[in-house]
Amino acid sequence: MVYDGLIKERAAWFGPDIQNSNEWLIHLDEAELEEIHSALQSVKERNLSIPFNKEDFSLPTLSKKLTSLYDVLENQLGFVLLRGIDRDRYTDQECELIYWGIGLHLGRPVSQNTRGHLLGHVTDEGKKMSDPTTRLYQTTLKMDFHSDQLPVDVVGLFCQRKAKKGGASFLVSALTIHNVIREERPDLLDILHSPFNLDWRGENPEGEQPWYTCPMYSHFAGKLTSRLTSRAFFESVTRHGQHLALTDLQREALDVVQEIGERESLRLSMDFNEGDIQFINNHQILHAREDFIDHEDPKLKRHLLRMWISFPKEFRRALAPDLMERYSYVERGGIPKKEVA
Questions:
Q1: 76, 77, 106, 233: which could join 72 in a potential S-S bond, CB 3.0 to 4.6 Å?
Q2: In whole angstroms, what is the distance from residue 104 CA to residue 29 CA?
Q3: Which DSSP category does 53 fall into?
């Protein structure tokens, strides 16, 4: 059902209004940082590796703050940035353990690809988008506003290392975009609430066809949910048949979404410090990245760690039936791993 009402939730924000707000920037204090350090040492002393359990990474005080993020992410702005971890204090592997341990206190990390990766590595791998299995995060290219492919509740990023130049993160509220379309192009709402064809780009679970259908917006149980996936998924789907190609109206609708999202009056910019952790609600906040120039030394290359996190059941939003089939993979642990022959 097409929703054409004005959304007045806190998550329907305009970037400039909150750009310098402390509402989304959470500074970890010394006690919390030492709690993280102690939890890390405990994991190392027991020679634990990912995936260890939440109980293995005890955060008696900080866990309460992390639990409070359920409301912030689902009912308030829809994103936060945790700052304060001293990146220089830890090795790459120790940062992975810290990030994993913190993520466990927010929910259940799930598989991000058919290789079963629970921690994704967002870094330039020298790949080309002409390869239909390549993802933009494996390049230095600009990434348009999008939500991540699987309808997970939260996308998390940990900044291991920054680029030599560029690579800033941008966020925009998909709810605000919907409000603007309602005012400026209401004729496109019906299109955006109708199914689009998308390519799995090689990540389809066993037994699934290599493409799927999904609306860009759906309204259910009082909540508007967006599934505005990266453009590459719409473009490469034609390798499975030209009948799956975007219609002219669908292409126009996606162009309008991007144009509105790129407006400085809507978007929020976020330049990561090394050690920062960003959590965003994948159902209503879109994220983007500017292109970047990387360091020549491989050890200094831009490197983010990514998690897809499923909320505990009591904190999940209700999703429309046309999204629940794909959310069932989230409930089962994410994209199923494929065995390589």
A1: 76
A2: 20
A3: -
Residue 129 has pLDDT above 60, yes or no: no
* Residue showing tokens 């499975």: 240
CA dihedral in degrees (219, 225, 230, 232; nearest 10)?
A: -30
Q: How far is CA 147 from the centre of its chain?
A: 6
Containing H/E element for 239?
Answer: none
Whether residue 128 has pLDDT greater than 90? no
Which tokens sit at 69? 């993020």
Which tokens belong to 263? 């407006």
| pLDDT at residue 80, rounded to an integer | 98
CA-CA distance, 173 to 266, in Å (whole number)? Answer: 8
Amino acid at 329: Y
Question: Could you tell me which residues are beta bridge partners of residue 182?
Answer: none
Q: Which distant-in-sequence residues (6+ apart) come within 8 Å of 233 by Cβ? A: 149, 198, 199, 201
Interstrand relation of 25-27 and 79-83 (parallel, antiparallel or unpaired):
parallel
Spans of all domains in the chain: 23-331
β-pairing verdict for 217-220 and 154-161: unpaired
Residue 129: phi, psi to the nearest 5?
Answer: -70, -10
Q: Please name which of 215, 152, 208, 212 lies closest in space to residue 189, comparing C-alpha atoms.
A: 215
Residue 93, token pair as written in the block: 């592997």
Residue with tokens 């992975």: 96
3-state helix, strand, coil in the chain (%, to 5): 35, 20, 45
Mean pLDDT (the chain) is 92
Q: Is the pLDDT of residue 340 over 90?
A: no
130 pLDDT tier (thresholds 50, 70, 90): low
* Peptide bond between residue 321 and the one before it cis (omega within 30 degrees of 0): no
- Structure-token match 């190609």, residue found: 245
Class of 23-331 in CATH = alpha beta
Contacts of residue 310, defined as CB under 8 A and 6 or more positions apart, other chains included, come to 107, 108, 109, 110, 152, 153, 154, 316, 330, 331
